[in-house]
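Tokens for chain A. Residues wanted.
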């Protein structure tokens, strides 16, 4: 295959799977119209795919005259670069997975797929809370999904609107103040929420996550606690370090942006986007030279688990795209997918046949698109059927 960009390779694979957006499809037509090498690269890609897959899923692309006079269809059009940037996928990785382990590319939900099941009303079986809850330091609670606007509750003045909360402590602070009362926001499955702290910091919470924060930060430091997943943009106040307590770990910063993920029990992941931060192990101190402390570098993810802290590069698309309601997976199995289905759709899953656990997938799951469509694509592409039992459990079984 010729040397071309990952984005062009992404467009090729999207064309093969009929999963490009109209804007991306137009972009690919323009590429073919001006660059014959791109056409050859696409044909080389076709040659690398197993013949049975090409003959089955991609047969319509091999019709005679498919490329004929394509330049006549080209029209000038503004490309939606930001969307394209978010959805790039490296075909080199995809092809390696498809050929080596028999993985399948799952189409984005909303595309046409063969073998549709009857639409399932998943919402009818979702019994867990569907409200963002704020538990105040005095023990009282507020349903932030229902109570909107300006509120004065206990020690806080709240402004809750547009799926985000601004707050400040009631009354004046004085020198030497300590943190006043801790409050906790709980974000349930299927939802997300943003909290704007009074120091200018911003915390985006993913589904099944919590944030505990004081009504007022102490004079010499800022401290909060997080479980689940959150994207943090911390305001720079070098004289007042920011401490985030995680299950078994601590993050220390002065001003930076990073993603925290503690979904997996016993594992903490901190992906640094910009700035600087220290990831401290259990019992670690604030001195960078002490064992159990990792100084993170931008573009790297610190991982703490099994008594060790390591650092490795991370793919921003895969780690950060949850904020756009997209979960990218590469070489994932049904167990991995089931975890995301539970968090984003509140659905419990079960594998009816153990052999299904060995199947691997490459693709994307969209939080705000039809789950039925995604599952129909799963069936059409990878021959995995599904059904919902009377208890609301989603079962995966081999398609007949």
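Reply:
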């Amino acid at each position: 295959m010729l040397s071309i960009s990952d984005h062009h390779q992404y467009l090729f694979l999207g064309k093969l799977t009929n999963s490009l957006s109209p804007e991306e499809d137009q972009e690919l037509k323009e590429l073919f119209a001006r660059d014959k090498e791109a056409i050859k690269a696409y044909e080389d890609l076709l040659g690398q795919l197993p013949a049975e897959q090409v003959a089955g899923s991609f047969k319509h692309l091999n019709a005679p005259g498919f490329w004929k006079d394509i330049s006549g269809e080209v029209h000038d059009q503004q490309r939606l670069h930001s969307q394209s940037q978010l959805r790039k996928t490296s075909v080199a990785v995809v092809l390696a997975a498809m050929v080596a382990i028999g993985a399948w590319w799952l189409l984005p939900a909303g595309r046409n797929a063969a073998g549709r099941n009857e639409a399932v009303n998943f919402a009818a079986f979702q019994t867990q809370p569907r409200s963002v809850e704020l538990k105040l330091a005095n023990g009282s609670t507020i349903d932030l999904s229902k109570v909107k606007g300006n509120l004065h509750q206990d020690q806080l003045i709240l402004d809750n609107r547009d799926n985000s909360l601004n707050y400040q402590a009631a009354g004046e602070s004085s020198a030497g103040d300590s943190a006043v009362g801790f409050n906790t926001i709980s974000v349930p499955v299927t939802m997300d929420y943003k909290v704007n702290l009074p120091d200018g910091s911003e915390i985006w919470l993913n589904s099944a996550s919590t944030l505990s924060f004081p009504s007022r930060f102490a004079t010499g430091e800022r401290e909060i606690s997080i479980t689940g997943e959150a994207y943090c943009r911390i305001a720079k106040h070098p004289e007042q370090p920011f401490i985030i307590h995680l299950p078994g770990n601590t993050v220390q910063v002065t001003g930076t942006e990073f993603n925290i993920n503690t979904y997996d029990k016993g594992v903490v992941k901190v992906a640094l986007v910009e700035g600087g931060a220290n990831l401290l192990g259990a019992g670690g101190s604030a001195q960078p030279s002490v064992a159990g402390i990792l100084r993170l570098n931008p573009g790297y993810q610190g991982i703490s688990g099994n008594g060790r802290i390591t650092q490795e590069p991370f793919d921003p698309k895969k780690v950060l795209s949850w904020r756009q309601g997209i979960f990218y997976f590469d070489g994932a199995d049904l167990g991995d997918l089931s975890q995301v289905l539970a968090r984003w759709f509140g659905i419990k899953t079960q594998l009816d046949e153990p052999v299904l656990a060995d199947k691997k997938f490459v693709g994307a799951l969209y939080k705000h698109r039809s789950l039925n469509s995604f599952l129909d694509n799963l069936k059409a592409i990878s021959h995995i059927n599904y059904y919902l039992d009377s208890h609301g459990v989603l079962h995966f079984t081999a398609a007949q």
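The chain has four domains: 6-102, 128-191+210-216, 220-314, 324-398. Residues 57-104, 107-115, 284-291 have pLDDT under 50 and may be disordered.
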